[in-house]
Design goal:
The structure is a single chain. This protein is an alpha/beta fold. It has 13 helices and 12 strands. The strands form 3 sheets. Strands 1-9-8-5-4-2-3 form a 7-stranded mixed sheet, sandwiched between helices. Strands 7-6-10 form a 3-stranded antiparallel sheet, with no helix packed on it. The chain has a two-stranded antiparallel ribbon with strand order 11-12. Helix 2 runs parallel beside helix 9, helix 5 packs parallel to helix 6 and helix 10 packs parallel to helix 13. The protein is globular, with a radius of gyration of 21 Å. The chain binds pyridoxal-5'-phosphate.
């Protein structure tokens, strides 16, 4: 019986250059981002410069995590207690968490068969709720038709925040993911496209949003040390009415990221070689359905999703167990119980109204959707072996 033995959670090591920079930080002890020598910029600020340039954004702020960056972004965009925030129902737990943290009321929007937001449902719910905000989560790197999303955003004057945790390096029709909304957040947590253990990056072109975000992130009134920031006058207006939520990135983490940023596009290209190989194999397995992707979507295939439409709830559980016995780690967002990093919207019960919410299409899609990481430590041969195992389990269980 074929078995796969590599670890689905193993990312590549930090590049030597990052280790060198990190050692330099450790040797000085100047790890805190504001603990710099006179006239020195510090790696956290260097990273903000580099990422803003990469994105073509005016401003960038490095935060402690993407979840905290999302929370700070929502607050900075003006979300107040009780404000409705529209959000696609298929996303990761830190996203509803950030909305709750900002005092927002989440209004979930259905997804379609291709895992992206249902634009008609978005239009309907924006109309019905008169919401001012949309948090669009490009979950697992799946980008909706952004032209259509923007039509609805403009029609309802929605203030859009993009969650780009899995679309760092991706674009829609040549326009970078994260440049459609008023602000966007990225993750540098270990399983995303750059790895500093934990970390988040927030971009915006808006003076007030960035000044507020810097204050919220905990600048201790040292905001002038930021270089990708609006003019100091903007801070003067808000500095006494903006609390410090202490959620900064430090120079140590930033040092790990600087060389990774230089190599980001190449890493994305490598991910897509793996992804396209895996997708081509899965496509040939009778019983597996990989939704077709729009050719305007330049995605980064750091994970792959597919459906097993013939499977029942019990069968999906068995399928996952059988794959796991043979070393293939498949995740399932349709599980009734939250498990590992997966959870479905009906288990976010800190929004009590979600437990009774019916999103029939999202439920149906997630019920038979499988999710698998593709770390860059895997090879094309690894993908073949994984696909062989998946195919054998699908056939053995008559899911084809
Ligand atoms: C990982 C992730 C986040 C949050 O990132 P953290 O840095 O872990 O807080 C947000 N949204 C999505 C879709 C993610 O996958």
């Amino acid at each position: 019986m074929k078995k796969f033995t590599k670890d689905f959670t193993l990312q590549e090591p930090i590049p030597d250059e990052g280790i060198e920079l990190a050692l330099g930080v450790l040797k000085t002890g100047r790890i805190h981002r504001y603990n710099t020598m006179h006239g020195e910029r510090g790696y956290a600020a260097d990273l903000e410069e580099g990422f803003a340039d990469y994105m073509g954004a005016k401003y960038c702020l490095a935060c402690a995590s993407c979840g905290s960056a999302l929370y700070i972004a929502l607050k900075s965009l003006g979300v107040q207690n009780g404000d409705i925030v529209l959000c696609n129902a298929y996303t990761l737990a830190p996203v509803p968490g950030a909305i709750e943290n900002a005092g927002g009321k989440i209004e979930l929007v259905e997804i379609m068969d291709d895992y992206t937001i249902d634009i008609e449902d978005l239009d309907r719910k924006a109309e019905k709720t008169k919401a001012k905000f949309l948090l669009l989560s490009h979950m697992r790197g799946h980008m909706a038709n952004m032209d259509k999303v923007m039509e609805v955003v403009n029609k309802h004057n929605l203030i859009m925040l993009e969650d780009c945790a899995h679309t760092m390096g991706a674009n829609w029709n040549g326009k970078k993911s994260g440049t459609f909304g008023k602000a966007a957040c990225y993750s540098t947590q270990t399983y995303k496209h750059m790895n500093s253990g934990e970390g988040g990056l927030l971009i915006t072109d808006d003076d007030y949003v960035m000044a507020r975000a810097i204050m919220f992130s905990g600048s201790y009134m040292l905001y002038s040390a930021h270089t990708r920031r609006p003019a100091l006058e903007v801070f003067e207006k808000i500095k006494k009415i903006t609390p410090n939520y202490s959620s900064r990135m430090d120079n140590l983490r930033a040092s790990l990221l600087l060389p990774q940023l230089k190599n980001l596009d190449e890493q994305c290209r490598r991910w897509n070689v793996l992804f396209n190989h895996m997708a081509a194999r899965l496509d040939k397995i009778s019983g597996c359905v990989c939704p077709k992707r729009d050719n305007r979507e330049y995605y980064v295939g750091s994970s792959i999703q597919w459906n097993l439409p013939k499977a029942t709830y019990e069968q999906i559980q068995t399928f996952i167990n059988k794959c796991a016995e043979r070393g293939v780690s498949v995740k399932w967002f349709g599980n009734k119980e939250p498990n590992g990093f997966t959870s479905a919207y009906d288990s976010w019960q800190y929004f009590p109204y979600l437990s009774n919410l019916d999103l029939p299409h999202t439920k149906k899609v997630l019920a038979t959707m499988c999710d698998m990481r593709l770390p860059l430590t895997f090879t094309a041969e690894d993908c073949d072996l994984i696909a062989d195992i998946i195919e054998e389990v699908v056939n053995e269980m008559d899911l084809n």
